[in-house]
Write a structure and sequence with these properties.
With 234 residues, chain A is mostly helical. Chain A contains 13 helices and no strands. Chains in contact: A-B, A-C, A-D, B-C, B-D, C-D. The interface between A and C is medium-sized, with 17 and 17 residues. Chains A, B, C, D: Pathway: Cofactor biosynthesis; thiamine diphosphate biosynthesis.
């Protein structure tokens, strides 16, 4: 459709470098992820509130496991600069993002004790522990590659919904979520992450290791897709 | 029902020691696991063949991840005796069990290439990577506790179905599976494993660590339960 | 000798709780550590400057490995509170302590590039990689126990030299080092660490695991002792 | 000297592939390793028996840590073939090599309890824990590269001493040691290992990662060199 947002044209960064190549080479799974009914329900504002609440709770639990992956990133870094970079990601999650998420959840009627007592869903366990296993089994590049779908996928979803004339803005309870992932701050974070992945990819032999990297990226995409449905099972 | 098999009476081992206490303290989740419709479908012989085939494929993939957990058990052992014991479990899987499983699958019309090319299900990823994460995060006791539901649960299911007058024997395509887990060889393996868990529990402070151990045991039981349903999603 | 500082009397904290018990139960090795000729050379101000410089360089490299151990502490923490606590230790090293150490080294004529290009000594490799291996093999308690000799040993050395009438103050080039480890800020850090170790010890079964904990504590003490001599081989 | 054994000419395998390139690029450190006074003392038969005994004890303790590294190799393998290969190395050490080593030690008057109660030397701790840390931090290639100096270095020493007209044969108490590492069985093991390293190197991007690999190889060579001197400090 003319006028519709297109990743390839409207945000070329998504198609460049190692992340861009990986995204391109599992396009079928990628489209299942970024075009998931969950995403459409957010865009139209028609998703059930209860499902979104369940998603937010699991997303909180995901952030904790993501922080653990960042801790392994510090451990696996081989320069002080890389260690400091990873430690800032880690502090960013523990000191800032989790508090913001708690505040956002409160707006949806979810109090902090409910977050703390929630049980991890199967979808969350599969996704987060897959990442942590790759982190332990492989090196820093394996870890960054399995984290990449989350980083760039949410950015693509955010940018597309933010720009799309079809997205409902007025009265859409999910607009703040769209604004977050389509906003400048998250965009800057993603651009930084994509650059970092390219640097690490070059130094750690991404070219020769590509088949393995594509396999782990594709599995992470598949698990991200399933994670959208955690809303139903949460 | 009079005459029915009862774990507590018919195989007291299941109720003794650390494993017995853990099983008792999450009895609700435990009964969901050992009394799952999958188990009933096996007992009556009415389970769909296709579902059982999917289960067998995922079980093959599970064995591979289980072997990786055994490798971590070798790494975490602090005596030569413990290392050798864990290495024998590892060799047992890689050299014997996997081949037996391949042979068994062939009887069900699943050839080895199909096993090798199969994709890990969400249920398998959740369960196996949870175990591997606990293995890396905790010590040998955490690892053995998360492996315990698989060990004793299959034994309990096997023993019960093997003994139950309600189990269909004649013409039940799943009788060989029941005979395997209800048989003397698997029973001996379980008795050995339960003893080992008690020894390790005593030396590694299971008493004081019980709340954490119960939490990880219960999660593993929940993931085992979900793993039965991998048959449908495989 | 009357009037001399005595750990047991002058800082009872060193003799209390899990850390105190461990220290007491390897007293022979402990005295070799805290009463090492390096310590006496610092107290009298007679240590060769070149040896102290070598020590400072290896201590810089040690901090980097210590930060990696803190990253594993974040990964192994099982509550958000514990994760945040460990992440603050980590940031403290990467953002503050390393910079302070670089500044201190500059006062001794060691420029930052010299620190960055220095080769890890055998003593440093043995000590730091032993800690990291225990961190990976065991759980959070094993990690904290192997880190404890560093924490409380430097505090004991600092407190004793700071208080001792035999320590040379005027013109002693090492007085600033003594003032650092005998000062209030480091003292507070140690008191916090000792409390934390007791809490974790209780929750993780230190009582039952004591023989193993003592063995790893004693090895760490031995490696700390050898680390003083890195000054000569650096 | 004419007629002397030369690695480059007499065993071209040592100069080929990834291992050969790494060996070549740290030739200074390599010569310190393979031409160490310990090696000369073995060749001439003049090394003190007590020093050799200490070496044998530490070598026993090294085998145990080496087995733990092989366990991590199983865990990090991404195919069943690779897992089985690594598990065979592991079983080989635990079931065969350790027993042979115990038998060999007995010939030198060292009984098994003495082996079991021996304390790990600083040199052993530095070397073995460095390998285990690289194993956890990096991927399978990092692990194989840090294990390579041991594999090919002992082969080179064995082959050279075995062939050299200068090596004392008659009445040399160390001839059996030379015969072991210069013998066909160990040679075959090394040839297999060198091939495996090349395969893994190709699949895991050794070309792009070469600077890091060379750094870890060189550190391992340095630690092997120091390990010869464990004989004195044991």
């Amino acid at each position: 459709m003319t006028g519709e947002w297109q990743a390839e044209r409207d945000w070329p960064l998504l198609t460049q470098g190692l992340a861009g190549r990986l995204r391109q080479d599992c396009m079928k799974q990628w489209l299942d992820f970024v075009g998931h009914p969950f995403v459409e329900g957010v865009a139209s504002g028609t998703m059930e509130v209860e499902a979104f609440r369940n998603f937010l709770i699991q997303d909180y639990l995901y952030l904790i496991q993501y922080a653990r992956a960042c801790a392994l990133l510090v451990h696996k870094s081989d320069t002080l600069t890389a260690m400091r970079h990873a430690a800032q990601l880690l502090s960013g999650i523990l000191d800032t993002e989790l508090s913001m998420h708690v505040g956002y959840c409160r707006q949806w009627g979810i109090e902090e004790p409910a977050l703390e007592q929630a049980e991890e869903s199967i979808e969350l366990l599969a996704y987060s522990r897959f990442i942590l296993d790759r982190a332990q089994t492989g090196d820093m590049l394996d870890l960054l590659v399995t984290l990449a779908p989350c980083l760039i996928g949410y950015a693509e979803v955010g940018a597309r919904l933010h720009a799309s004339p079809r997205t409902v803005r007025e009265g859409n309870p999910y607009w703040s979520w769209i604004a977050l992932y389509g906003g400048d701050e998250y965009t800057a974070l993603v651009e930084d992450g994509v650059c970092r992945l390219n640097e690490v990819g070059a130094a750690y032999g991404a070219q020769a290791r590509y088949p393995t990297l594509l396999r782990e990226f594709t599995t992470a995409v598949r698990l991200e897709t399933v994670f959208w449905t955690t809303a139903r099972s949460g």
